[in-house]
Every structure is written in C-alpha cells, then in structure tokens.
Design goal:
Blueprint lengths: L16 H5 L2 H14 L2 E4 L14 E4 L2 H9 L4 E2 L12 H8 L8 H10 L4 H20 L6 E3 H6 L1 H11 L6 H12 L13 H25 L5 H6 L2 E2 L2 E2 L2 H14 L2 H16 L1 H9 L1 H16 L4 E6 L3 E3 L2 E3 L4 E5 H4 L35 H18 L4 E2 L4 E2 L8 E3 L1 E3 L8
Parallel strand pairs: 2-10
Antiparallel strand pairs: 1-2, 3-7, 4-14, 5-6, 7-10, 8-9, 11-14, 12-13
The structure holds protoporphyrin IX containing FE.
Protoporphyrin IX containing FE binds next to helix 12, helix 13 and helix 17.
Length: about 425
C-alpha cells in the first residue's frame, strides 16, 4: 500500500468526520505529511453535538519517539483526565467505561495488580486449549458454505467468546454481551446506534446492562467459586486491596471492550494483508511456528486497531519541541507512529519477518501497556494456524466496509471465499 498525499498540510483536519471517511491510503498520506512537516499539530476538538461541552483543543502527536516519551513519563502525561476520548467526559463516565485505563498510579497500579493474576503466562497457557477449540468452532460454523462475511460470521465471534468463557459468562449471554460492546465502541456508526438516538442514553444503557450481568455473576461466584476469572477477581486481595463490585463491573466492561474489537480487527486486517501480499502469506504458511514470532506483531503493527490514546499534561513541559502548559491534551496517534519512517524500514511494506519491530499497537512502554497483549498474540497465532490449515485458499472477494470511527481502525464487513471443507471431528 502506498500513501496518497491529496491533502495539503493546512487541509488536514483530524477532527473532521470526513477525514476518517477518506480511503486508507489518503489518511496514511495525511499522517505522513504531518510526521514530516508538523509532527505536533493543534486541532479544535471534534463536534460532540452537545453531548459534552466543546473542549479547548488538542495536540496530535504523530512521531514514534514523542509517543514513547509520553508513555514513559506518566507523571507528566497522565491518563486520569481520560485516555479513550478526546472530549472530557464526566468523571463517573471515565471510571464506569474505562476502569483503570483512565487512572494514574497509585490507584491504577493497585487495580492492575489485582486483575493481572488473570493474565499470567501460566493462566494463558492453560487457556490455549479453549482458544483453539473456540477458533475451531468459529471455522466450523462457516466451513461448509465456501463463502461468508469474514468479519461478522467468522472472526467476530472469536475474541468475544474467549473473554466470555474466561469470565465464566454463560453461552446464552454471549450474543447479548457482543451487542452491548458494539454499541459502546461503535457509538459513532449508524449501524450500531441509529442516527438521531440519544447517544449518552444508549451508551449508559449498554454499560448498565453489562454491569448488571457482571454483578449477578460476581454474586454467584462469591458464593460458589469456580476456576474462572470472575471467581479469581471477586476473591482477589493484595496488601488489603480488594476490587469493589463497581470496580469489577468496570473492569469487565474494559475487558470486553478492549479485548474484543481490537483482536477482531487485527485478524481482519491481517487476513486482508495476506490476501494483498500473497508472497508474505506463503512465507508464513511454509514455516508457521518460526515466522509467527515476527508475523503476529507485524499483523498488529499493520492493523493498528487502536488509532489513538489520549494523555493530559500535569504541568508545563515540552514534547516534540513544543512548549506545553498544564492541562493540555495530547492525542497519541499510535497508528501514525506505526508507520514512522524514522523507525520502520519501508514502513508501508507488510513484512511477516520484520525485525526489529518496535510498534506501539499495544501502546507505548509504560504503566498502561496492553494487559491483554500476550493473550491477543496467542489468539492471533491460533486463529491464523487454523485458517492456513483448514481454509488454505481463502480469498477476499470484495472491498472491506469500514467502521466510521477515529478511535478504532475497524472493518465491519468483508466478503470472503474458500473451498468448502468438513466440520471438525
Ligand atoms: C490486537 C489486540 C489488541 C490491541 C491492538 C490492544 C491495544 C491496546 C492499547 C493500545 C492499549 C493502551 C492504552 C493506553 O495507552 O492508555 C491497551 C490497554 C489495555 N488492553 Fe489491550 N489491545 C488488544 C487486546 C487486548 C485483549 C485481548 C485484552 C484483554 C482481554 C486487552 C486488555 C487491555 C487492558 C485491560 C488495557 C488497559 C491497561 C492499563 O491501562 O493498564 N487488550 N490495549
């Protein structure tokens, strides 16, 4: 893919919805222009249609080095004013939807410690069998048909089922959880929230529905623990710290939101990339285990499913040569850093053997680095192995339909075809 520079520096407006509707190569071209000519640029905030008051604007941080620095210095560049949204949201909203992704240390560290027991190497290893089974079942659901919508029919059920099973949510509730997370992340897209709806109400409704579900499950697991993550979390205690029922519900929302669309989009973009670069597909297929060690991270770099995360300055400082005062918003464009020509050789080449690959698809090095990164890597590896084994000739038969969002680099639909095969034994 070659970036296309159709916009001049002053025509680029990262807050305009039309910008995010442009073809990918034009968007990439604009970020290339920004990295080269104005790596820290200031924008008025996106119009929230009265949902929250218009804020003072933000700095778009587009260079890899500046994003690394902001990630490494959380005391200067904090998350507690909001990490996942450019406009300021009411505090209750931040904790409710974002849990500790919207907190700073020491509160962030205490909560992250409490839940990280669910993501140890040992626990993930034990989960591998389930991940494999779920991947197999996802393929089984379509393999006899010979064609399907890769996103909705094949790939989307995969990560959400893994999280639901990890948490011990009954299968009858999986679709319900999936629908609520789509609303929370796709609030800007009319496919998920019809135009004219009261977005705040719809969002709160989806959050409350997930919260009720988790409270009920938490109560059950308190009385009768099993070996699922909910039981571990509800009973976890470190140095006198315990998760309150509200914390638990918010963490659940964070998990289903953070671990669902991200992995789904990484896989969808990865499949599209392998379709566009068949030689790379062959390299990976021919030596799956070895090449996976680099290919999986290249898929995440290429996809950059999370376009940005926000930080706010805690005092006057400098970043990327720009003087900043206290309380300024910085939007760290991870997707731009992942194409930074100063860091990646031939940044627009999809290369399954790319090494080194210091992408920031899972965030920069710092306290907020993705808690689920290793789980996501295993999920991606296991899914591609199944695809290569059981649908070796899978091809994409139409253009991907994109999610209207400046936050999630999403594919909503993508038609595919493959030689039909049998359901697994
Ligand atoms: C390819 C898939 C994934 C991508 C691209 C991704 C991306 C990210 C990014 C960019 C952040 C950084 C937030 C920041 O800078 O403030 C993050 C944080 C987080 N992710 Fe992921 N993620 C993925 C999969 C997952 C999965 C599978 C889970 C769990 C099931 C998960 C759970 C989390 C959590 C809990 C945080 C918050 C960490 C903190 O604030 O301490 N993610 N993720």
């Amino acid at each position: 893919m070659e970036p296309k520079q159709v916009l001049s520096l002053d025509e680029i407006d990262l807050s305009a919805p039309e910008f995010w509707g442009r073809p990918w190569d034009e968007r990439e071209g604009a970020f290339q222009t920004l990295r080269r000519e104005r790596p820290m640029s200031f924008y008025a905030e996106p119009d929230t249609q009265g949902l929250v008051p218009q804020g003072p604007g933000y700095w778009a941080v587009t260079k890899h080095a500046d994003i690394l620095r902001a990630s490494r210095e959380p005391n200067l560049f904090c998350s507690s004013k909001g990490a996942t949204s450019i406009p300021d949201l009411p505090e209750m909203f931040l904790e409710f939807f974002g849990a500790f992704i919207n907190m700073d240390d020491p509160k962030h560290m205490r909560q992250r410690k409490l839940v990280s027991g669910g993501f140890t190497r040992q626990r993930l290893k034990k989960l591998d069998h389930d991940v494999e089974r779920i991947a197999r079942e996802c393929l089984d659901a379509v393999i006899e048909k010979g064609e399907c919508d890769f996103v909705t029919e094949l790939c989307a059920p995969f990560p959400i089922r893994i999280i639901c099973e990890m948490l011990g949510i009954p299968q009858s509730q999986h679709q319900f959880v999936f629908d609520q997370t789509n609303i929370i992340l796709g609030a800007g897209d009319p496919e998920y929230v019809p135009e004219g709806s009261d977005i705040a109400q719809v969002l709160i409704g989806a959050g409350m529905a997930l919260r009720t579900l988790m409270n009920e499950l938490g109560e059950e697991r308190k009385k009768k623990p099993t070996d699922d993550l909910t039981s571990l979390l509800i009973n976890a205690e470190i140095g006198g710290d315990k998760l309150s029922p509200e914390d638990l519900a918010s963490f659940f929302i964070l998990l289903v939101v953070a671990g669902n669309e991200t992995t789904r989009n990484a896989i969808s973009h990865g499949v599209k990339a392998l379709h566009d670069y068949p030689a790379q597909k062959q390299i990976w297929k021919d030596d799956f285990d070895n090449v996976s060690q680099t290919a999986i991270d290249e898929v995440v770099r290429w996809a950059s499913p999370v376009i940005f995360m926000r930080r706010t300055t805690t005092r006057a400082c400098e970043l990327g040569g720009q003087q900043l005062s206290e309380g300024e918003k910085l939007v760290l464009f991870y997707a731009s850093a992942n194409r930074d020509e100063d860091v990646f050789d031939d940044a627009f080449r999809f290369d399954v053997r790319r090494t080194p690959n210091e992408h920031v698809g899972f965030g920069g090095p710092g306290p907020h680095f993705c808690l689920g990164a290793n789980l996501a890597r295993r999920e991606i590896g296991i899914f591609f192995r199944q695809l290569f084994d059981r649908m070796p000739d899978l091809e994409i038969t139409g253009p991907p339909e994109r999610l209207a969002s400046n936050f999630i680099h999403g594919i909503k639909h993508m038609p595919c075809r493959f030689t039909p095969g049998p359901i697994s034994g």
